[in-house]
Each structure stands twice: as C-alpha cells, then as structure tokens.
Write a structure and sequence with these properties.
328 residues, 14 helices, globular, MetI-like fold, mainly alpha
Length: 328
C-alpha cells in the first residue's frame, strides 16, 4: 500500500504540472488583456504614473513579456514558495483572500455532504429492500424531484417559506447585523441559522443522485448468489443486509465519496451567490469574470490538487471497505 501511494503521488505531481501549464497557457491566451485594463484604471486614479508606465510595470511583474514557458516556470517557482501574487480585483494577497473565504465554503459543503450521506444511503437501501413497494416508489419520486429541480428554484421556495412567510430565517448573508455583540455560543447559533437554507438547497438538489445510485447498487448486491446463500443458512435479514450486502454496496459509493472532496472546498457557486455567502465559489466566480488572473491561477491549481487527492482517497478506501481488493 505504501508503494502504491508513493507511486500515485508521483503521478499526481506530474499530472498537476501539466494541468498547471495548460491553465497558464489559457490565461496567457485570453483575447482580452486585463493587464491593460488594470493599467488604465490605475493611471486614471492619478497615482503619479502614466498608463504606459503602469503597463510596463505590471507586464514585468507577471512576466508577460517573456516566452510562455519561461513565464510558467517563473510562476511555478513562486508557487512552490507559496507566493501567488496579489489579487488584481481584491487588492490583497491571493493566499490571504483564500484563507478569508474558505471557512464559509467548508462549513456549507461539509454540512451538506454529511446530511446527504445520512439521508441518501439509508433511503436508498430501504428502497432496494422494498422494491416495487409504496416506499420504493416514494423514495424514487423524491429522488427524481430533487434531481429535476434547479438550484435557484429550490432556494426561492425556501426563502419564501422560511424567510418571507414564517420569518424564521434571514434572506441573505452569513451573520446578523449584531453578530459582533453576541456571545460565542450565540455567534455559533447565528451562523448555523444562516446556513440552514443554503445547506437545505444543496441537499435537495444533490441527494437524489446518491439515493438512486445506492438503490441500484443495493439491488444488484441483493440478487447475488452469496446473499441467497446467506439467507439459506438461516441468517437474519438484518445481518444479511447490514453485514453482507451493505459492505459490498459501499464499494461503488466510495467513488462518489472520494469525488466529492473538491466540492467541499470549491464552494457552491450558485448557492453562495443566491444567499450572498462570501465563500470561495462566489469569490472565484467574481475573480474570473473580473479578469483576476493571479487568483484564478491559484484557484484552478488548488482544485486540480483536490481532484487528484480525492481519486487517491477513493483508491485507498477500496481496500478498506473490501478486503478482497489487493493493491500490488
């Protein structure tokens, strides 16, 4: 297992290098020169430097006047030292801006992920155990509704019910106006109350896919020969489901669990925008639309690292949930 992990990490470094190079080339090949726009804005702000001086200075800082390969290795050298430059749009260090907004996305993504697992897997197993029954049809109907509904529709319904009609929750934001004057416990409860609707929005639109996936795999396992053998031996239905069938159902589900790692840190772009939560998803979207190349390069490279790390975790979990898997 150790040799396998080391081998995968070496491959991941190579793939990450190539992915970062492609991202850098795409940033350099953008049809609009955002450096020129920034130089024009700073020159118009009467900073004492002309447009031409600002353009020459910014071009030299970001090595846009050299060959793309040379510029890329310059960026890699700075990235290894943790220096990703200053955000063009936000005006602060890229890493600092990331640290400021990532907690909100982690809270939102992790809460939705835990609820999704807790709801989808038990209901998927229950639907498979009672195939073609009223329970199965109800679970399937709920799953299809969740898959079909768009994010903005679910968010609007939740706002109308819980914020407008009932007045229980706030429409936007992550904290209340008097958040700073609250005690520590009140601050936690305040953030939790603001996260209820965003988390529910993500759960509603994402739980259906995992529910259907669990049901399909559980049905396949329940029809296997070893399940019929276990039942013929007189084992209780609870032991057959929880011990024999469930462990084998987890094998394909592990793929989805590992693939969700990037989403825990990438942020829910649409949900964060609808509820005005300053998470990494919303901030990265604004940065991309405003031509913030330093922040965009950092964010896309970070997502590539999380994707490869998620795949590695999935491979390791295969051996954990299934002793038959042997990595050579």
């Amino acid at each position: 297992m150790r040799q396998f992990i080391i081998k995968r990490l070496l491959w991941a470094v190579m793939i990450l290098f190539l992915v970062a190079f492609v991202i850098y080339l795409l940033m350099r090949a953008l049809p609009t020169s955002y450096v020129e726009a920034i130089a024009r804005e700073r020159a118009a702000a009467q900073t004492g430097m002309s447009y031409k001086q600002w353009l020459e200075q910014l071009t030299a800082i970001y090595r846009l006047d050299v060959h793309p390969v040379i510029g890329f290795f310059h960026w890699v050298g700075n990235a290894i030292r943790g220096q990703f430059g200053t955000s063009w749009h936000w005006g602060v260090d890229v890493v600092q801006k990331f640290r400021d907004v990532i907690p909100a996305s982690i809270i939102l993504g992790a809460s939705a992920f835990v609820l999704e697992i807790v709801i989808a897997i038990p209901l998927g197993i229950l639907a498979a155990r009672k195939q073609y029954s009223l329970t199965d049809y109800t679970v399937t109907f709920m799953a299809l509704i969740g898959i079909s509904l768009p994010t903005f529709f679910v968010a609007t319904i939740l706002k109308m019910v819980f914020a407008v009609n009932l007045g229980w929750l706030d429409l936007y934001g992550m904290v209340s106006r008097d958040h700073r004057r609250m005690t520590d416990l009140q601050k936690v409860l305040d953030i939790a109350s603001h996260m209820i609707m965003p988390v529910l929005t993500i759960v509603v639109i994402s739980v259906g896919s995992l529910m259907r996936y669990t049901r399909t795999n559980m049905l396949e396992v329940l029809n296997a020969d070893y399940i019929r053998t276990a039942r013929a031996k007189g084992l209780s239905e609870r032991r057959v489901i929880n011990y024999h069938a469930f462990r084998n159902t987890l094998i394909p589900i592990v793929t989805i669990v590992g693939g969700t790692l990037p989403s825990l840190f990438s942020g829910a772009l649409i949900t964060e925008q609808l509820f005005q939560i300053p998470g990494i998803g919303w901030i990265s979207y604004i940065s991309m639309t405003r031509g913030d190349i330093p922040f965009t390069m950092f964010y896309l490279s970070f997502m590539a690292i999380l994707t490869m790390l998620g795949n590695l975790i999935s491979d390791i979990l295969y051996a954990v949930v299934d002793p038959r898997v042997r990595v050579s």
